[in-house]
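Support request, priority: normal
Reporter: lab tech (M.K.)
Component: structure prediction queue

Hi team, I submitted a job for Niacin transporter NiaX from Enterococcus plantarum yesterday, and the status page still shows it as pending. I've pasted the exact input below so you can check whether something in the sequence is tripping the parser. The sequence length should be 208 residues. Please let me know if I need to resubmit or if it's stuck on your end.
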Amino acid sequence: MKKNSVRQLTISALLVAMGIIIPMVMPRITIGPASFTLASHVPVFLAMFFSPGVAVAVSLGTGFGFFLSATPIIAVRALSHLLFALIGAMYLQKHPTIVLTKNKFSLFNGRFQLFNFVIGLIHSAAELAIVSAFYTMGNMPETYYTQGYMYSIFLLMGIGGLIHSLVDYNIAYFVANALSKQFDIPVFSQAKKLEQVKITILPQETRI
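Reply from support: The job had stalled in the queue. We restarted it manually and it finished. Here are the results:
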């Protein structure tokens, strides 16, 4: 039990560090006035494949980390990740087999991509609400007001944020699958066990 807690704490710390460093080093796609950093959400998404506890720890860790290194709006947006991370991690824990299709990994896995889309909606809706509040209070850069709410906030931050989320979760999905071949990624390990049980039971049922 203690060994498992230390492992989860270590994984959480590593993912928090990644979550703070990635926005500093990864390339950005700028569509004025907004910008999107490739893979910036990947550490939080990876945490969801471990456990709800790790997902919460990484969301809180990156959020508070950004309070020290970035603007308040970026920090609050990072803290909002707690919502989708906890919901997603709990769902994955209960339904791990959605990460595999026919006992194999595939980016064209319809069940996982539907899950990805729902998480993306929660993710973008939470951030949109926060950015909208800052916009209403007049705390955004002038360029956002020049472009107007529908373009600079709803379209870029809302729809653009959804697309960003979908891309980053697929990156995390690919990375988690690759790591699961060498390390214990709980959701993937559990999915493989359950799929193997199905493969073992089905032939017996066929014979009956």
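The mean pLDDT is 91. Residues 149-180 form the longest helix (32 residues). Let us know if anything else looks off. Ticket resolved.
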